[in-house]
Every structure is written in structure tokens, then in C-alpha cells.
Design a protein that fits this description.
The chain is about 30% helix and about 25% strand. By secondary structure, the chain is an alpha+beta fold. Strand 3, helix 3 and strand 4 form a beta-alpha-beta unit. The longest helix is centred in the middle third of the chain and has 22 residues.
Amino acid sequence: MKIMNSKNADEQFARLGLNLPPAPRPLGVYKPCLVDGRFLYLSGHGPVQDDKTLIIGRIGKELDAEQGKRAALQVGLTILSTIRTHIGKLDTIKRVIKLFGMVNCVPEFERHTYVINGCSELFAEVWGEENGIGVRSAVGFGSLPDNIPVEIEAIFELQ
């Protein structure tokens, strides 16, 4: 991956040829995102597909690690959709600060970091290695809302 200026994020995303799903609406009492000073905080996002449905299933039971990684990529696309909907251009993001990745999996599953790489690799492609890779946690959970395989929350620094 190349180091790139985060101001080219919208162009880089267009080059990837990926689609953004519709930005999800809150299903509870919370805001999808909040700006505080120069930081953008995103609530936990799930894998929303283009038709507004969710990818569902537990990793290690209904889904394997590769399907989980693709679900995490879809979560990344959902996060990008929320940024575009509520903030505007992806170029308004200076860098990724932190991702917190939650993996709905069977107790024996141990490849949480591999799964969350689906989102991290997308952000590295969009904002470059220097700005697109932040600190991160990837942990396993016994369940997630609506039986989604992955939920990710994020913190970004704004330009």
C-alpha cells in the first residue's frame, strides 16, 4: 500500500469501485456520530448491505473467517456511508484514530484480528497507511445485536 495524502480519500475510494450502502438510522436512543472539536466519534456500526438488510450469522457457526472478514469490510463501507451522509466528503477525515471491533463468534474462534482486518484494510486503502491505520481492538463476543457477525465503532481526527 502507498502512503497517500488523506485529502485524496474521495478519489481513492472511487478508484476502489466499491458501493456504499445507505447510512443506517439509529435503532435505539443514540446518535450515529458526534463531532467534538477536531474528533469524529462513530457509534457501533453493523454490516449494512446495499438493500438495507444486515449480514447475519455467528462466525464459527453460520459463517467462516473469510465471510467474517467480508462482513467487516461491509461494516467499513457502512461507516464510510455515515461519514458521507453526516459529515460530507471523506477528505474531511485527517486520519483514523481508533477502531473497536467486536466479533460475534463461537468460544473456540481465535481469529478476531483477521476478521477486523476487513475494515482496517479498507481504511488503509482509502486514507493510506499513514492516516488510515490507527490503534485498534478486536475482541470476541457471544452475541451482537440482530445476530450480526461484526460491529465496529470508530474515532477519526478531522482536517
